[in-house]
C-alpha cells in the first residue's frame, strides 16, 4: 500500500504503517461503533484492480459496505466489485476485493495524502457486535506501473517467485500482476539477493 486512512466521523487516522506491517488488529476497518459514511480508504500512487486485505478480526453485526472511487468530481460506486471480505465480516485471513478499472479514476487528497483511492464506506448501519480489524493490505497494479524505474529483477529459486525493486519499493509477481509488498524508508535499494 502507498496510503491507508481510517475515517471515523470525519476524523482521519493515517494507517499506512499499519497496512504494511504484520501487527495483528492495527488496521481499524470500521470504527468501534460505525455510523453511515464512516469509511476506510486504500490508496496507491498508480491505478490498480485489486486490494488484498489480511483480516485479523472477523467483524460481526449488521451493516453494508459500498466500495467507491473518486471520478474527478465526486465519489462513485465501483463497478464489477467482488468483495471477498463480505463487508469485513468474512473469516480471518487474506481476502481480495476486485473491481473493474474505472476509466475516469482521478487522484484526490484524503487527509492531505494525494493518491488513487478507493474507499469502503458504511452505507447502512444497524448494529455491531465485533469490530472488524486488519493486519495488512496490498494493491494489485493494473499494469507494471511502479512509479519509478526498476533497479533490479530477480528470480528467487527457493520460493519460485519473481521480484522487482525500484529505489524504494519491492514488488512480487503473482503470475498476472506485480504486487507491491514492501516500502523501504530511509534506504535506497541497489540489488536483491536470495
Task: Give a written overview of the molecule.
The chain is mainly β. It is built from one helix and 16 strands. It has one helix at residues 16-20; strands spanning 3-8, 11-14, 27-28, 39-44, 48-57, 60-70, 75-77, 82-83, 93-98, 108-110, 113-130, 133-141, 152-156, 161-165, 169-173, 178-183. Strands 1, 2, 4, 6, 7, 10 and 11 form a seven-stranded antiparallel beta sheet that branches. A five-stranded antiparallel beta sheet has the order 3-12-5-9-8. A four-stranded antiparallel beta sheet has the order 13-14-15-16, with no helix packed on it. Strand 14 and strand 15 form a beta hairpin. The two termini are 24 Å apart. The mean pLDDT is 91.
Could you give a short description of this structure?
It contains one helix and 16 strands.
* N- to C-terminal distance: 24 Å
Oligomer: single chain
Rg over CA atoms, rounded to whole Å, is 17 Å
In terms of DSSP E residues, the strand content is: over 45%
Query: What spatial form do the alpha-carbon principal axes imply?
Result: globular
Name the features:
single chain, 194 residues, mainly beta, 5-stranded antiparallel sheet, 3% helix
Topology:
Blueprint: E1 3-8, E2 11-14, H1 16-20, E3 27-28, E4 39-44, E5 48-57, E6 60-70, E7 75-77, E8 82-83, E9 93-98, E10 108-110, E11 113-130, E12 133-141, E13 152-156, E14 161-165, E15 169-173, E16 178-183
Antiparallel strand pairs: 1-2, 1-4, 3-12, 4-11, 5-9, 5-12, 6-7, 6-11, 8-9, 10-11, 13-14, 14-15, 15-16
